């Protein structure tokens, strides 16, 4: 009986000791003033490509070079693009002449010529009618044959038709080109101008510029290579924004608001602190990544977070391990873009 009691006492003591250890190691410390989490420096990268397919004639930067937004990085052979621009400009000049001619209407010389043809046709009709009337009078006295009368009648009808054609031609010249013809010519001109804008854009796109400040991480092609929209030329690592990719434990999630200020340190610069803030917390939970925490903590639920970092001297690099310390009890804050918010923190 005594042995059984001793065994129970030992079991109870072991259970209480295990419970006390669990309280010390698993439960969050209620009086902690800050949360310490660990992660790695992360940035965005951009694959830079040309919009056109052509041979590269110039590569202006190398791996590791720091570039500024708008800086020239590479150029394609532009001869074909320039020729296309010149060809369309010539077509536009010709079409402008056509549109101008239609809009100006008929020239005075054309109108005078049409009026003269009408008068000539009227004179011919007058003479044909006189001849017909004279032969008709002679035919009634048997002094002209029926054939002569018929020929005079046909000649009069022909000159009458000629007068009508001349009058209609004069009316068309006076009226000028049709509105539909002018509209069609103007539409053709607009189409050519759109083609010119596209050709000029293709010419401008033959130069590759940096879309933002950053560091050339990889130079993929060389002069003489054939570039295409599917083939990257450089890989650009963006300097801004820069953040620590870390994971917040589920019990601490409610204590870390967005915009909370943070202090970041790295192994490369252990005596230097970097300012930062919590810029993003994932809305969904996940298990702790195996490459971040120890095996004992891998089954914990965590939330991925981005702690944006101010890096004025460009000391922090992609992949660096970093330690993040976030004071608890902060109120949520609205933050501007990373560059603007870094200036605000530096001014404080």
- Count of DSSP H/I helices: 6
Biggest sheet character:
6 strands, antiparallel, barrel
* Secondary-structure class: alpha+beta
Under CATH at level 1, the class of the largest domain stands as Mainly Beta
How large a portion of the residues is in β-strands, by DSSP E? 25-35%
Distance between the termini: 73 Å
- Range of helix content: 40-55%
Please give the domain count: 3
Rg: 45 Å
- In CATH terms, the superfamily of the largest domain is Efflux pump adaptor protein, beta barrel domain
Globular, elongated, flat, extended or rod-shaped: what is the shape? Answer: rod-shaped
What is the topology?
Blueprint: H1 2-25, E1 34-48, E2 54-59, E3 66-67, E4 72-76, H2 79-104, H3 108-140, H4 146-175, H5 179-204, E5 207-209, E6 214-219, E7 226-227, E8 234-249, E9 261-266, E10 274-281, E11 286-287, E12 301-309, E13 321-327, H6 338-347
Antiparallel strand pairs: 1-8, 1-13, 2-4, 2-7, 3-6, 4-5, 6-8, 8-12, 9-10, 9-13, 10-12, 11-12
Describe the structure.
The protein is α+β, with helices and mostly antiparallel strands. The protein folds into three domains: 28-43 and 240-347, Elongation Factor Tu (Ef-tu), domain 3, CATH 2.40.30; 47-76 and 205-234, OB fold (Dihydrolipoamide Acetyltransferase, E2P) (Beta Barrel); 84-200. The protein has six helices and 13 strands. The strands form two sheets. Strands 1-8-12-10-9-13 form a six-stranded antiparallel β-barrel. A four-stranded antiparallel β-sheet has the order 5-4-2-7, with no helix packed on it. α2 (79-104) packs antiparallel against α5 and α3 runs antiparallel to α4. The chain starts with a helix and ends with a helix.
């Amino acid at each position: 009986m005594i042995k059984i009691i001793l065994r129970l006492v030992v079991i109870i003591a072991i259970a209480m000791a295990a419970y006390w250890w669990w309280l010390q190691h698993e439960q969050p410390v209620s009086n902690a003033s800050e949360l310490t989490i660990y992660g790695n420096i992360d940035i965005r990268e951009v694959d830079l490509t040309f919009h056109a397919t052509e041979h590269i004639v110039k590569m202006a930067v190398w791996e590791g070079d720091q570039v500024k937004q708008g800086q020239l990085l590479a150029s394609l052979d532009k001869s074909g693009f320039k020729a296309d621009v010149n060809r369309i400009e010539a077509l536009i000049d010709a079409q402008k002449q056509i549109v101008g001619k239609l809009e100006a209407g008929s020239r005075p010389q054309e109108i005078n010529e049409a009026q003269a043809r009408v008068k000539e046709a009227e004179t011919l009709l007058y003479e044909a009618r006189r001849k017909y009337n004279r032969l008709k009078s002679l035919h009634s006295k048997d002094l002209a044959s029926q054939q002569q009368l018929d020929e005079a009648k046909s000649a009069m009808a022909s000159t009458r038709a000629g007068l009508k054609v001349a009058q209609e031609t004069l009316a068309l010249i006076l009226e000028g080109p049709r509105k539909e013809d002018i509209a069609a010519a103007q539409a053709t001109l607009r189409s050519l101008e759109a083609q010119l804008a596209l050709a000029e854009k293709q010419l401008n796109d033959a130069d590759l510029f940096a879309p933002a400040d950053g560091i050339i991480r990889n130079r993929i092609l060389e002069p003489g290579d054939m570039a295409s929209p599917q083939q990257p030329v450089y890989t650009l690592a963006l300097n801004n924004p820069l953040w620590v990719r870390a994971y917040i434990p589920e019990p601490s999630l409610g204590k870390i608001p967005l915009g909370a200020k943070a202090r970041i340190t790295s192994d490369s610069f252990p005596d230097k602190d970097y300012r930062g803030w919590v810029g993003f917390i994932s809305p969904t939970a996940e298990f702790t990544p195996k490459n971040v925490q120890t095996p004992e903590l891998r089954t914990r639920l965590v939330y991925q977070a981005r702690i944006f970092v101010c890096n004025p001297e460009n000391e922090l690099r992609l992949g660096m391990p970093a330690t993040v310390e976030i004071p608890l009890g902060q109120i949520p804050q609205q933050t501007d873009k990373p560059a603007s918010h870094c200036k605000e923190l530096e001014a404080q």
